[in-house]
Design a protein that fits this description.
Layout lengths: L18 H19 L8 E3 L5 E3 L4 E3 L2 H8 L2 H29 L16 E8 L6 E8 L9 E6 L13 E7 L6 E6 L3 E2 L6 E5 L4 E8 L2 H6 L13
Helix pairs in contact: 1-2
Organism: Aulographum hederae CBS 113979
Family: Belongs to the SF3A2 family.
Keywords: Metal-binding, mRNA processing, mRNA splicing, Nucleus, Spliceosome, Zinc, Zinc-finger
């Protein structure tokens, strides 16, 4: 910047620049620097409004000319917003990638954060097989707001749970989970379940949204000698 013709200064000696002149010189240098690295035609945040001013859609600022806008792009505010936008896009890209991988890999499920809407209604009935004399239970659960998912069940022994302490080895738990409902557990006898069809089955009524679980316990003889070679299970099988 030429200082020799400044008012109040000697010829060839220069002079003290005012703050406004210094800022103007800084903006000019930033504009020239930005012209080397930025193409306004390809800048996604550059916008010319109806009154002829220039706007930055990222920072929501208005500039009177392109030089002011280019100087703004080299400032701290614009650079900080660019870094925030890049971090946000990277985070969203990872989330979309995880969803895509979950869709391509059926065995991998993406965890979803759903709002639980309460516990399902249920009814438990004691049953008994008239032929084998096996005792069992019939569970009937109501899921009126169930859409697109199927309830899942799991048997859990007393030492896996953390609700009742100390654990009681005489009982086990039947856990039923179905989003968006809260998981529910039933405390049943710690006896071996007869998983032979039709002694054990689950069924979901798609119309009434009722989920049925029917199970029979093995008899004492089957529990004791069921794995012994040569001994047939007691009672007739259907």
């Amino acid at each position: 910047m030429d200082y020799q013709n400044r008012a109040g200064s000697k010829f060839g000696g220069g002079g003290v620049a005012s703050s406004s002149a210094t800022n103007a010189d800084r903006r000019e240098r930033l504009r020239k620097l930005a012209l080397e690295t930025i193409d306004l035609d390809k800048d996604p945040y550059f916008f010319k409004n109806h009154v002829g001013s220039f706007e930055c859609k990222l920072c929501l600022t208005v500039h009177q000319n392109d030089g002011s806008y280019l100087a703004h792009t080299q400032g701290r505010k614009h650079q900080t917003n660019l870094a925030r936008r890049a971090a946000k896009e990277e985070k969203e890209g990872k989330a979309r990638e995880a969803q895509t991988q979950g869709a391509l890999m059926p065995g991998v499920q993406v965890r979803r954060n759903l709002i639980k809407i309460g516990r399902p209604g249920y009814k438990v009935t004691k049953i008994r097989d008239p032929q084998t004399r096996q005792n069992g239970l019939l569970f009937q659960l109501n899921f009126p707001d169930l859409h697109g998912t199927k309830p899942r069940i799991r048997f859990m022994n007393a030492f896996e749970q953390h609700v009742e302490e100390p654990p009681d080895k005489d009982y086990q738990y039947l856990v039923v989970a179905a989003e968006p409902y809260e998981s529910i557990a039933f405390k049943i006898q710690s006896r071996e379940i007869d998983r032979a069809n039709p002694n054990y089955y689950t069924w979901l009524d798609e119309d009434s949204k009722e989920f049925y679980i029917s199970l029979l316990f093995k008899t004492e003889r089957d529990e004791r000698y069921g794995n012994v070679p040569g001994l047939a299970p007691s009672g007739p099988r259907r």
